[in-house]
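Q: How would the C-alpha cells look for this protein?
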Amino acid sequence: MSDLSNIGVSVIVPTWNRAELLEEMLRSVHEDRQRYDGPSEVIVVDSSEGEQREKIERSCRLHDAVYLAGDQSVRRKRNLGCAHARHDLLLFLDSDVTVEPGTIAGHAEKYLEGSHIGAVQGLTEFVGHGGFWWHVAELSGLTESFSNARKYPFQSWSITNNLSVRRDVFERIGRFRDDFPFKLGGDDLEMSYRIAHAGYLIASAPRAVALHAKTTWDNPRALLDRTRRWGTMESRICSLHPELYRLSVPKSYVLELPLLVAPLLVAAASGETSVALVSAALLVLFVLQRYLRECRAHGGLLNPVHLLLALCVNARYELFRQAGYLSQGHCDGLVHAMVFNCYQARGSIGPDARRIATVLADLAFVLLAYGVIERVL
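A: Here is the predicted structure in C-alpha cell form.
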C-alpha cells in the first residue's frame, strides 16, 4: 500500500445557494477524510446571502470545513480558496457532487508516480433521477467529458468538478484566469490546458469517483446557459492559445445544410415544385438518418422528441461558437475547430470519413430524387 501520510490535500469548493446539496457533499468528503492517511482540509468559498449563507456556514462548522465569503465569480472563488490553502495538493470539487470512499487517496496516490504528474482528473458518475431535460442533455453530448477518466489514461485538459493539481504547478502556470466573460465556464479547460502545455501530465484516476447530481442539469435553463457559455468560451480559448485552432473536417451541418437549402432557393427562384419536393425528401432523409445513427450508437430506440431537442441544443452551441469566432476576428470557424493533440485528430479520422461518405450519399440521393420526381411530374 502506498504511503500517503506526507501528502497533504486541500479540498476547494466554490458554491452559491446550494445549501442542501453542499450539506451532502461535505458529509461525504468528511467521511472520506477519516479514511485518508495524510493531512487534509476543506475550504468552502461561498457567495450566498441570507438563510442560504447561514445554512452553509452551519454545514461547514458541522463537517470541519473552513468558510470563506467570495464574490459571484467561480474563478475568483477557486483562486481565493487556493490562497488560503495549507497543503501542497489542491483538490477542486463542485458543490453538486458527493465523493465515493477512497477519492482523496485515489488522487493523492497518482502523484507518487513522479514529479511529471502535474494534475489528476477523477471520474464523475451522474446519479439520481433523470427527468425529461436530463435525457436531452445526455443525447446532446454535453456530459461526455465527465467520464474521460475512464476512457483515457492521460488528458490534455480537464473539467474541475473533480480535479486535483499540485500547488507549485498551479502557481507556476498562473492560477485561474479571472478576466473571462460569465462567472464560470471554460476557465477550467483553459487552466488545465496550461498545465499540459507547460510539460506536465494530467493523469486519470478512475477510482477517485465523484457522484454528480442530475438535478442541476435537468432543466432547459441550465442547458441554454451552458451552450451559451461553452460555445462562446471556445473562441476565447483559441484566441489565447492559437495553436489549438486547427483546420478540421466541417461539422455535419456545414456539409449538409447547402444540400438542403440549395433546392429551396432554386424552387423559390424558378417556381418549380419538383425542386421543393427534393428538398422536403432530403430533410426527411437527414432526420431519419440521424435518428437511426443515434439509436445504433445508444444501443436501442430513442425518444425522437429528446433527440430533436438535443440537436437544437447542439445547434445553439454551434451558433454561439461561430459568433464567438467572428467576434475574435476568425472568419473560418466552419472549417476550423479546437484540436488539442494528434491523438484527438487521429481519433476523428474515422468519424470524419463516415461524415464525408454520408454527405456524398446524400448528394447522390439528391440527384436520384430529383430525376425520379422529374419523371413523375
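The radius of gyration is 24 Å.

The CA atoms of residues 108 and 268 lie 65 Å apart.

Upvote if useful.
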